[in-house]
Design goal:
The structure is a homotetramer of 289-residue chains.
Chain A (H helix, E strand, L loop, with lengths): L7 E9 L4 H11 L3 E10 L4 E9 L7 H13 L5 E6 L4 E7 L4 H11 L5 E8 L5 H6 L4 E3 L7 H14 L4 E4 L8 H6 L4 E5 L11 H8 L3 E8 L9 E8 L6 H24 L3 E4 L2 E4 L2
Helix pairs in contact in A: 3-8, 7-8
């Protein structure tokens, strides 16, 4: 469980695998007074790439926060061909939720938010329907209705973008938002839009996956949370889970059983994103433990 | 657990749903001295079809075994538009196993067979490669090598069919048999050939599903046992299961983790088939409990 | 999925197993104009007991609703030594929720309730702490604070009972209510109080199961919903589930992972109870599908 | 998947958590020409202990294999208060299997062994019953029958120990061996005897767990593999898993469903042990990925 008051730096990095790379990075942190509180690394031996997430306490770190990146660049980034992001735990991320008419994922997220389970801000909920305004009101969160039609899509997305900008949104969660986002919109938030698809991807891409699952007679149904990319339901998968069904289950039963899957799988993905434990590469994710 | 020495009749039936149908069938069994030891039924309300599996002891049943079908036809089949099969527990089914080079499913099946877990006979194993002859020999089961090439397929399948006939085979289990059977061959054993596909169908149909799963970056891998139909990997699904994987798993790891899934999922399907608990309809299965 | 507007009778029964019992009951329904929409039965062969749940439409049933029990008694109950309950779908059950300070199970229940997922009324929430009044207010449900100490227990439970009576409560859900109910109180609601225990019972009975699980070094943690009986955590189990943990998980992590388990496992049990699909016997449950 | 021909050193270590410890160890490997192929570490923050498994290729390592321990002691062990074991991949471990009458775990292990899935030698199987001699013969492995009674236990265990010594056995797998080993015997193989218990420990310790599970009316049954310690079923847990059961399952059904669980859970534990990925501490395990 994340402590709320910690003051740490989080380095997510990848580079060509090379001898001594762990020693180099950990020594940099150590000699400058940082105490490592998390380190997880993974080497993709087939492609020869080294991935690492390392987090250290800043209280006695002698390099000022706003200089760490500079030092890191000078000392290591070019030399070791590092690709990295540096984040600080004290910066609380700001998350927008997009919904349509179904409330189960929204309630699950808001219940966690309000109970302080997640270190995140949720300043706004956006919907193409007014139905869930009542939920937003229960939790006292601004709710913006942006109805979308094929004709108004570009204009409405521009409006959405304005709202997101005005709230300084860092990332977006599509909590059963039943609209396909435009490529333009998606490119503004690369790997910062999390969707829940109600099937075990790549099975049943697109609309009405429970109907398709019913028709195929599967014995398990699934849900998949993934980052949104311009290819429909084809972005990097963050988390998946399944539940058992039988011949007795109608499409309505699948929908009902699926709801519990969807909300849990989406919330697990959002939590990992909040904790900055996801690294993406080649349209896949590395999800650190 | 099935008792080996029981003497029961097993009726698998479906018909248009209609009032009183359960009463009619159960009364038929009851008034004629049959003791029902199993009854499970299911109504597909959307299509209005009634499905039932009922099993009763024959010891005091006053209708002779070889006349039950006749009586049943006369009294009920036409009147209620019943579609049924009638089986007797004392008839031990005879099962052939088809394999290629991988032994894990074969060992799992033979270990159950030899320990008496299944009420079945396995008189022959057929393979397109000689590699697993040694396993067949361990268990003292005839092993027939029928190598198959595109050119020789028709001829070799004819040879296989001869062998199956000579052993009075009732159904076939493809225990990681790496050949696609011809439509002709499949039609001789309608819903009597069980395959294990190493993916969560309908995801990753066809060859090399673990490679495809790896490339897609899924977080779960699956296995699916199904009856073979002329459409590749599209027959009625009997059983599915999954296991969790992470970014750390290479294709080889998926193959390895998948093996345990494959053998368990295949054996569960074979057991249900042996117990005559599977009814097929509309390219789906009803698997009774 | 349950249709809200259906008008059915639900018979839950058990009796000594005897030939023809299914035929007798189904014929009674059939000849009197009832259309069976659900039938599931189970025979405990070891103890020779027959259990059945049967549900039929009342629209054309010729026996008036308030006479069905009488007819059933006269015709069958004594003759077949039946033990049964008869319920009607149009009677909406009334459920009270007991909570302490944790909100996750409460939110999960209320989100389902408010979205119309469950055919139930929730007229009151009772708590020994004021903390969750704010949640009750979000959903506009009366919230009664009844603080309990060892000294005041009898008096406070009497007060709770008064409230429950005033709201005509049919059954109670303990949604992480951190008080042990007295035997007297429990006996007023036999198998009508559902609890969620945060372990895989019977492992880790009593207080602080996550601490105990951590200390034992288990690789899975569980949650168990059960009917409350005077023996602590020993009532009939309705539903259980587990999630995987590793050596990396602290007690706080177990608590966090456990929350998702608890809410889902509790809600599954509550739903089965609402649907009148649970039969209890010998301190066990039969949960019909 | 383990490559069979690799030449690596495997260091399993723990020590008081201290800044720079990763850098120190990884640098030692790096500067001496070792290429790290695996590193996983874990910090128990509550108790302040650092655990690590690191594996590196020896091909260009400048310290000779038989000197690595000495150098490591001199340079680091005392200074950092390290507790470590050093293993070499080229040393194939030798494993003995103890069985009684049930064959499912034995077959599962031998099928993996014979197919080359595990980098291990199995030179002998020991049993207190002659029943499974036929299985040993199928796989051409010596089978020693050592019948045990209360009176002969000490003597028979001495005989077992002799056999194990004669085969240079490194560790023992109890594949449903139905005898309790003496404390003396266990102390000769500290955390080198792996047992499979047919319950979700700590529920249902001791004899007949499936009967106890049936009596309690659980909805899931489990299996637990653990290192054997003198306290019955209380040693460090390596792996656990569960499967769903219902009120329909008799004790015999639980036994049958449990068999699949037992064999898979035991084999997963044995594999982790073979790969030297298990570290024990405080009666718990750290199982590296």
């Amino acid at each position: 469980m994340e402590k709320k008051d910690k003051n740490t730096a989080i380095l997510l990095m990848h580079c060509p695998d090379q001898p001594g790379i762990i020693a180099v990075i950990t020594e940099f942190i150590d000699v400058n007074g940082g105490n490592i509180v998390y380190l997880d690394q993974y080497v993709d031996r087939i492609n020869g790439i080294f991935y690492m997430r390392v987090e250290w306490e800043l209280d006695n770190f002698i390099i000022p926060k706003d200089k760490i990146g500079e030092y890191f660049d000078t000392l290591y980034a070019k030399r070791y061909n590092l690709n990295y992001t540096l984040k600080f735990s004290e910066k609380r991320q700001r998350m927008a939720i997009f919904v349509s008419k179904m409330s189960h994922c929204l309630y699950d997220i808001l219940a966690r938010y309000i109970s302080g389970e997640w270190d995140v801000e949720i300043p706004v909920i956006i919907s193409n329907h007014p139905d869930l305004a009542v939920v937003a009101k229960q939790f006292d969160i601004p709710f913006e209705v942006i109805p979308i039609t094929k004709e108004t899509k570009a204009e409405m997305e521009a409006r959405e973008f304005e709202i997101l900008e005005s709230y300084n949104i860092d990332f977006i969660v599509l909590a059963r938002y039943m609209q396909v986002l435009s490529e333009d919109f998606i490119r503004r938030y690369p790997h910062h839009i999390i969707n829940i698809h109600h099937s075990f991807l790549p099975a049943f891409v697109g609309a009405k996956p429970y109907h398709a699952a019913y028709d195929r007679g599967v014995k398990l149904i699934g849900a998949t949370s993934h980052y949104v990319t311009p290819d429909l339901d084809a972005g990097p998968i963050i988390e998946q889970d399944i539940t058992r069904v039988t011949h007795k289950d109608t499409v309505d039963d699948l929908v009902k059983k699926g709801r519990d899957l969807e909300k849990i799988v989406l919330s697990r993905a959002v939590e990992k994103h909040i904790q900055r434990k996801i690294l993406t590469y080649n349209n896949k994710t590395i999800v650190f433990s």
